[in-house]
Design a protein that fits this description.
Layout (H helix, E strand, L loop, with lengths): L1 H34 L9 E4 L4 E2 L2 E2 L1 H15 L6 E4 L10 H11 L7 E4 L5 H15 L3 E5 L5 H10 L3 E4 L11 H21 L11
Parallel strand pairs: 1-4, 1-6, 4-5, 6-7
Antiparallel strand pairs: 2-3
Helix pairs in contact: 1-6, 4-5
InterPro entries: Cell_Envelope_Assoc, DUF218, Rossmann-like_a/b/a_fold
Keywords: Membrane, Transmembrane, Transmembrane helix
Pfam families: DUF218
Length: 209
Protein backbone atom coordinates (compact mmCIF):
# COMPACT_ATOMS: atom_id res chain seq x y z
CA UNK A 1 0.00 0.00 0.00
CA UNK A 2 2.81 2.34 0.88
CA UNK A 3 4.44 1.86 -2.52
CA UNK A 4 1.12 2.43 -4.29
CA UNK A 5 0.42 5.55 -2.24
CA UNK A 6 3.87 6.89 -2.96
CA UNK A 7 3.42 6.21 -6.66
CA UNK A 8 0.08 8.03 -6.66
CA UNK A 9 1.55 11.05 -4.89
CA UNK A 10 4.40 11.09 -7.37
CA UNK A 11 1.99 11.08 -10.30
CA UNK A 12 -0.08 13.88 -8.76
CA UNK A 13 3.01 16.00 -8.12
CA UNK A 14 4.25 15.31 -11.64
CA UNK A 15 0.90 16.30 -13.10
CA UNK A 16 0.88 19.54 -11.10
CA UNK A 17 4.42 20.42 -12.19
CA UNK A 18 3.49 19.71 -15.81
CA UNK A 19 0.37 21.88 -15.50
CA UNK A 20 2.41 24.78 -14.13
CA UNK A 21 5.01 24.43 -16.88
CA UNK A 22 2.30 24.37 -19.55
CA UNK A 23 0.63 27.44 -18.02
CA UNK A 24 3.89 29.40 -18.01
CA UNK A 25 4.79 28.35 -21.55
CA UNK A 26 1.32 29.09 -22.93
CA UNK A 27 1.27 32.52 -21.23
CA UNK A 28 4.73 33.41 -22.54
CA UNK A 29 3.67 32.31 -26.03
CA UNK A 30 0.52 34.44 -25.83
CA UNK A 31 2.59 37.45 -24.74
CA UNK A 32 4.96 36.88 -27.67
CA UNK A 33 2.03 36.54 -30.08
CA UNK A 34 0.25 39.66 -28.81
CA UNK A 35 3.52 41.59 -29.08
CA UNK A 36 3.60 40.84 -32.81
CA UNK A 37 0.11 42.24 -33.42
CA UNK A 38 -0.72 45.84 -34.32
CA UNK A 39 -4.38 46.79 -34.02
CA UNK A 40 -5.36 50.33 -34.99
CA UNK A 41 -9.17 50.51 -35.07
CA UNK A 42 -10.87 53.89 -34.93
CA UNK A 43 -11.23 54.59 -31.22
CA UNK A 44 -12.19 57.24 -28.71
CA UNK A 45 -8.60 57.77 -27.64
CA UNK A 46 -5.01 56.65 -27.98
CA UNK A 47 -3.64 55.81 -24.52
CA UNK A 48 0.11 56.05 -24.00
CA UNK A 49 1.35 54.07 -21.03
CA UNK A 50 3.84 56.10 -19.02
CA UNK A 51 7.45 55.26 -18.31
CA UNK A 52 10.34 57.03 -16.65
CA UNK A 53 10.89 60.75 -17.14
CA UNK A 54 13.82 62.86 -16.00
CA UNK A 55 12.95 66.38 -14.88
CA UNK A 56 10.17 66.53 -17.44
CA UNK A 57 12.11 64.85 -20.25
CA UNK A 58 10.75 61.42 -21.30
CA UNK A 59 13.16 58.49 -21.11
CA UNK A 60 14.10 56.72 -24.33
CA UNK A 61 11.47 54.03 -23.65
CA UNK A 62 8.77 56.65 -23.05
CA UNK A 63 9.86 58.73 -26.06
CA UNK A 64 9.49 55.70 -28.35
CA UNK A 65 5.92 55.24 -27.13
CA UNK A 66 5.10 58.92 -27.56
CA UNK A 67 6.46 59.01 -31.11
CA UNK A 68 4.32 56.02 -32.03
CA UNK A 69 1.25 57.64 -30.47
CA UNK A 70 1.99 60.80 -32.48
CA UNK A 71 2.04 58.75 -35.70
CA UNK A 72 -1.27 57.09 -34.81
CA UNK A 73 -2.86 60.46 -34.07
CA UNK A 74 -1.65 61.87 -37.38
CA UNK A 75 -3.13 58.82 -39.14
CA UNK A 76 -6.52 59.63 -37.60
CA UNK A 77 -6.82 56.56 -35.35
CA UNK A 78 -8.38 58.70 -32.58
CA UNK A 79 -9.09 62.39 -31.94
CA UNK A 80 -7.45 62.42 -28.50
CA UNK A 81 -4.18 61.16 -27.04
CA UNK A 82 -4.20 60.29 -23.34
CA UNK A 83 -0.88 60.28 -21.51
CA UNK A 84 -0.79 58.32 -18.29
CA UNK A 85 1.30 58.02 -15.15
CA UNK A 86 2.06 59.62 -11.81
CA UNK A 87 5.42 60.50 -10.31
CA UNK A 88 7.91 58.91 -7.97
CA UNK A 89 8.92 60.46 -4.65
CA UNK A 90 11.10 63.48 -5.28
CA UNK A 91 10.03 63.98 -8.89
CA UNK A 92 8.78 67.41 -9.97
CA UNK A 93 6.85 66.14 -12.99
CA UNK A 94 4.46 63.28 -13.57
CA UNK A 95 4.91 60.88 -16.46
CA UNK A 96 1.58 62.02 -17.89
CA UNK A 97 2.57 65.69 -17.69
CA UNK A 98 5.92 65.02 -19.36
CA UNK A 99 4.24 63.05 -22.12
CA UNK A 100 1.67 65.75 -22.74
CA UNK A 101 4.36 68.43 -22.97
CA UNK A 102 6.34 66.30 -25.44
CA UNK A 103 3.32 65.82 -27.68
CA UNK A 104 2.36 69.49 -27.46
CA UNK A 105 5.82 70.42 -28.72
CA UNK A 106 5.40 67.81 -31.47
CA UNK A 107 2.35 69.67 -32.74
CA UNK A 108 -0.70 68.00 -31.23
CA UNK A 109 -3.23 70.66 -30.13
CA UNK A 110 -3.72 70.97 -26.39
CA UNK A 111 -7.44 70.25 -26.70
CA UNK A 112 -6.55 66.88 -28.26
CA UNK A 113 -4.45 65.88 -25.25
CA UNK A 114 -5.49 64.56 -21.85
CA UNK A 115 -3.03 63.86 -19.04
CA UNK A 116 -4.15 61.33 -16.42
CA UNK A 117 -1.56 62.03 -13.75
CA UNK A 118 -2.22 59.02 -11.55
CA UNK A 119 -0.68 55.62 -11.04
CA UNK A 120 2.68 54.22 -10.06
CA UNK A 121 2.10 51.05 -12.05
CA UNK A 122 -0.01 49.85 -14.97
CA UNK A 123 -2.92 48.69 -12.84
CA UNK A 124 -3.34 51.99 -10.97
CA UNK A 125 -2.96 53.93 -14.21
CA UNK A 126 -5.54 51.84 -16.06
CA UNK A 127 -8.05 52.24 -13.27
CA UNK A 128 -7.53 56.00 -13.42
CA UNK A 129 -7.93 55.96 -17.21
CA UNK A 130 -11.10 53.90 -16.85
CA UNK A 131 -12.54 56.55 -14.54
CA UNK A 132 -11.56 59.32 -16.99
CA UNK A 133 -13.23 57.42 -19.82
CA UNK A 134 -16.42 57.00 -17.77
CA UNK A 135 -16.55 60.74 -17.08
CA UNK A 136 -16.35 61.52 -20.80
CA UNK A 137 -18.55 58.71 -22.11
CA UNK A 138 -15.64 57.07 -23.94
CA UNK A 139 -15.40 53.31 -24.30
CA UNK A 140 -12.63 52.34 -26.73
CA UNK A 141 -8.88 52.84 -26.84
CA UNK A 142 -5.75 51.90 -28.71
CA UNK A 143 -2.99 51.29 -26.17
CA UNK A 144 0.59 52.27 -26.93
CA UNK A 145 3.28 50.56 -24.92
CA UNK A 146 6.18 48.17 -25.45
CA UNK A 147 5.33 44.93 -27.31
CA UNK A 148 5.86 42.63 -24.32
CA UNK A 149 3.66 44.77 -22.11
CA UNK A 150 0.72 44.80 -24.51
CA UNK A 151 -1.20 41.71 -23.39
CA UNK A 152 -1.23 42.63 -19.70
CA UNK A 153 -2.08 46.26 -20.51
CA UNK A 154 -5.03 45.10 -22.64
CA UNK A 155 -6.31 42.83 -19.86
CA UNK A 156 -6.07 45.57 -17.24
CA UNK A 157 -7.76 48.09 -19.55
CA UNK A 158 -10.61 45.68 -20.26
CA UNK A 159 -10.99 45.01 -16.54
CA UNK A 160 -11.29 48.79 -16.11
CA UNK A 161 -14.21 48.85 -18.55
CA UNK A 162 -12.35 49.87 -21.71
CA UNK A 163 -12.61 48.09 -25.05
CA UNK A 164 -8.89 47.91 -25.71
CA UNK A 165 -6.63 47.08 -28.63
CA UNK A 166 -2.89 47.61 -28.68
CA UNK A 167 -0.47 49.09 -31.17
CA UNK A 168 2.96 48.53 -29.61
CA UNK A 169 5.95 50.64 -30.49
CA UNK A 170 8.70 48.85 -32.42
CA UNK A 171 11.41 51.27 -31.33
CA UNK A 172 13.33 51.84 -28.12
CA UNK A 173 15.49 49.84 -25.70
CA UNK A 174 12.81 47.20 -24.99
CA UNK A 175 13.14 45.76 -28.49
CA UNK A 176 16.81 46.32 -29.27
CA UNK A 177 18.22 42.81 -28.71
CA UNK A 178 16.84 39.28 -28.48
CA UNK A 179 18.29 38.97 -24.98
CA UNK A 180 16.37 42.06 -23.90
CA UNK A 181 13.20 40.75 -25.51
CA UNK A 182 13.56 37.38 -23.77
CA UNK A 183 14.07 39.06 -20.40
CA UNK A 184 10.99 41.24 -20.85
CA UNK A 185 8.86 38.26 -21.88
CA UNK A 186 9.92 36.35 -18.74
CA UNK A 187 9.13 39.31 -16.49
CA UNK A 188 5.81 39.97 -18.20
CA UNK A 189 4.85 36.30 -17.91
CA UNK A 190 5.35 36.46 -14.14
CA UNK A 191 3.53 39.79 -13.90
CA UNK A 192 0.58 38.61 -15.99
CA UNK A 193 0.14 35.38 -14.05
CA UNK A 194 0.34 37.26 -10.75
CA UNK A 195 -2.34 39.68 -11.92
CA UNK A 196 -4.66 36.91 -13.09
CA UNK A 197 -4.18 35.02 -9.83
CA UNK A 198 -4.41 37.91 -7.36
CA UNK A 199 -5.75 40.95 -9.19
CA UNK A 200 -2.65 42.84 -8.12
CA UNK A 201 0.25 44.41 -9.99
CA UNK A 202 3.95 44.48 -9.27
CA UNK A 203 6.40 47.35 -9.34
CA UNK A 204 9.48 46.97 -11.49
CA UNK A 205 11.35 48.42 -14.41
CA UNK A 206 9.57 50.93 -16.63
CA UNK A 207 6.58 49.35 -18.29
CA UNK A 208 6.65 46.30 -16.00
CA UNK A 209 4.60 47.36 -12.99
Amino acid sequence: MGVRAGSLVGRVVGALVLAVVLLVVSTATAIWWTARQDAQPASDAIVVLGSAQYNGVPSSIFEARLEHALALYEEGVAPVVVTVGGKADGDQFTEAESGRAYLTEAGIPEDALLAVEEGVDTLESMRAVGAAFDERGWSSAVLVTDPWHAMRAERMAEDAGITADSSPTRQGPAVQTRATQFRYILRETAAYLLYRATGESIAGAPGIG
